[in-house]
Amino acid sequence: MKDYNKPPNEKKMNIYNPPPGSKGLKYSNKTEDMNGLEEGVVFLPTNNTKDVEKPCGPKRWVFVVAILSISLLLSLLVGFLVWHFKYRNASVQKLYNGHLRLVGQKFVDAYENSSTPEFAALARKVKGTLIDIYNKNQDIGSFHKETEIVAFSEGSVIAYYWSDFSVPKYKVNVFEKAMANIEAPHYMEIHKARNPEIRIESLVAFPSDPDIMKASRDNSCHYALHAQEGVVTSFTTPGFPNSPYPSNARCLWALRADADSVISLTFTTFDVEQCTLGNDFVKVYDSLSPVEAHALVKLCGSFNPSYNLTFVSSQNVLLVMLITDAKGRHPGFKAEFFQMPKNRPCGGVLTGTSGNFTTPYYPGHYPPGIDCVWNIKVPKDKNVKIRFKEFFIVEPGIPSDSCTKDYVEINKEKYCGLRNTFVVSSKTNEITVRFHSDLSFVDTGFWAEFLSYDSSDPCPGRFTCSSGRCIDKSRRCDGWLDCPGGGDEKDCNCTEKQIRCNNGWCKPKYWLCDGVDDCGDNSDELQCQCPAGNFKCNNGKCILEAQKCNGRDDCGDGSDEGSCDSVVTVPCQEYTYKCRNNLCVNKRNPECDGKKDCSDNSDEDNCNCGQRLYNKKSRIVGGQTAEVGEWPWQVSLHVKGEGHVCGASLISEKWLVTAAHCFREENYVRYFDPKLWTAYMGLHDQTDRTNSNVQMRSIKSIIRHPFYNDYTYDYDAALMELSSPVSYTKDIQPICLPDVSHEFPTGKAIWVTGWGATQEDGIGATVLQKAEIRVINQSMCNTLLPNQITPRMMCVGILTGGIDACQGDSGGPLTSIESNDRMFLAGIVSFGTGCARRNKPGIYTRVSKITNWIRETTGV
Ligand code: 4AZ
What we know:
Layout: H1 8-16, H2 25-38, H3 49-53, H4 56-88, E1 91-103, H5 117-136, E2 144-154, E3 157-168, H6 172-180, H7 187-190, E4 199-207, H8 210-217, E5 222-226, E6 233-236, E7 250-256, E8 261-271, E9 281-285, E10 295-299, E11 302-303, E12 310-312, E13 317-323, E14 332-341, E15 348-351, E16 354-358, E17 370-377, E18 383-393, E19 407-410, E20 413-415, E21 417-419, E22 422-425, E23 430-437, E24 445-453, E25 463-464, E26 470-471, E27 498-500, E28 506-508, E29 534-536, E30 542-544, E31 569-570, E32 577-578, E33 584-585, E34 634-639, E35 643-650, E36 655-658, E37 665-666, E38 669-670, E39 677-681, E40 695-704, E41 718-722, E42 749-754, E43 769-776, H9 778-784, E44 793-797, E45 813-818, E46 822-831, E47 842-846, H10 851-858
Parallel strand pairs: 5-7, 15-17
Antiparallel strand pairs: 1-3, 1-4, 2-3, 6-14, 7-13, 8-11, 8-12, 8-14, 9-10, 9-13, 16-24, 17-23, 18-21, 18-22, 18-24, 19-20, 19-23, 25-26, 27-28, 29-30, 31-33, 32-33, 34-35, 34-39, 35-36, 36-41, 37-38, 39-40, 40-41, 42-43, 42-45, 43-44, 44-47, 45-46, 46-47
4-(aminomethyl)benzoic acid binds next to β46.
């Protein structure tokens, strides 16, 4: 756009094009030169010795040296000029956004509209004053190119501006320093200024990136909205909801409220391009300038309606910015805002024996720039503890151990980030909780309760962790760390069923040599190490290190070929992935991981599966209610007159995978009759089946696995064909089927979901539930459930108990989140000994063992 540098080809032209008229002289010049050179050369007769000794040699050298020196000087000069004009003088564009306060000015409504004469008049004066300030500073003034006043807000009057500078490269550091320290002029200087009636203070300028600057400069998509007293105002992206937002858009919504008010903004619908797939995003600023220092949030992707997207300003303005690129057009957003009185107090004195308190506007996002202090006092003879039930204080780029921006502080210790339920206790009857939020980036905050407790018995009938947390006495010395820091596993006498780790902990004997460091100091795995230079297979066998990743199954269980860094075509084995061209690769789980591993790319074909289209809030760590759209392949199978009976997984528009035992004949009811069943896709709440996001289908056919054994539950799998295809939506998506070679390693966290009973012999859940459980190694699975486990089964659970699938979850998915955030159907809920009992994990049908049957039967 701007012509700061000469186009390089202009220079080239000078080099390659001789000056006009020089052509004819070229030859004669050369001749003249030759003559000139020969001038000092005298060819003498050989007998004239005197003349031979004539000192004409040195003279020639002087001449040559002079010529050389001159050409050296000339090239130095040329070099200097090139450097000076091309590099030293090369300029870079520097863009700034900022704001300043006008002292003693009265705000009039017309200032909110940039096309009014009042706006133009004040903007002219402010701009002039700003340029005067720039000109006063020799490190700024001469580089200024353009400034524009973009908005005013109330209080008294705040002006928002952008400025454009062109700074020589070698001056950039000095310039940036000067801009960072820019200040409003002293009062005395104002009278000498161009607009003495304009007095400004609190002048700030922030470097801006060109893309955001484009949004400020192009006002084809700018909106100014003022909150109305007691009324909710809404606005949407252009075209919402009937057409997608425009591509390459730079839209700004300047939201204002009356002085001494703040703004509450809520996105009621939000659906822009997924963050990982494109560059579209929305940013909200606690200012009318799009400056990073006042950014509250950056949003992309889509959020389900239950996600709380409420933001509160610190002053009476907010700016919403939408930036989109050329592709990936989505519906956009609908937002609402209203004004509220400022200075709502936060913190305070809390008394009594228990109570709750939260960050301001919880579960909405807390405002920027606030400090709250809660002084909590329980009766004198008691102590007090705080339990944080929800805790979300995440700042982009700030690790949870540094807490330099937003934090909670108790007893001089700072807490931030995303945390599970935790407890902080005091050894007195008082405690002080402080909360601080800085000027940028906000989060949901916390929800906490304070509780008084008896200092001599803080956990009646239970074990007290040093953190103050109470755990069941049976959890003491059971091999699992239940207290933060593992206090419940210290100073234990190990039973005969346990081993003693070197660090003193007791662990179940069957964890010895299972390839997992259960002790924490690896002492349970030491006596079973292979000799040096050997590799230990998953089945315990030792093989030579050199045999690892050599394309042969030396372990016998494929574990030596399962996790090789490079993708090598190897002879096909059980554990290798077979490409469509029948060549096999040794990479573990290469399907749909976003990388081409097969030479024919077939590992990345057929990958329209296993993707969540909503942003996952799941930040819910303690709670187990699923979010809307979090498990879009989850299906609820209803039987006429009985309601929900089993779960299932959607694998294509027409096919479901479920458990074969759901169709057992019981009480003379022939459950394998397709007419009995109805499948609900996109369902979240069993009481809300008429929701427009739900698609209901009758069943055309039920196909049980031909090897299903009704007695052992071996091959507990069945396919259901829907009467007509479903259409995929955000709430309805298919899950990926794992390849026959797909491995779900021991210890891997996997999710089980369903509307099953929430406790053994309990009743089913109304809203879809989720639980994170872990893959348990097959030999331990055999030990825990002797004579029950076949290779088509896998144990998945938490051996301490408490988390499990239960009655009514049968047939539902066991979802494994793999690389690229792709979800695979690892298992089908099959059976178990009760629910959530200690050492009794759930048993799941291992889907990779029946993938071929599923694909052959359904064509998926
Ligand atoms: C059932 O009856 C059932 N604890 C499913 C899973 C489990 C137990 C029972 C696993 O559907």
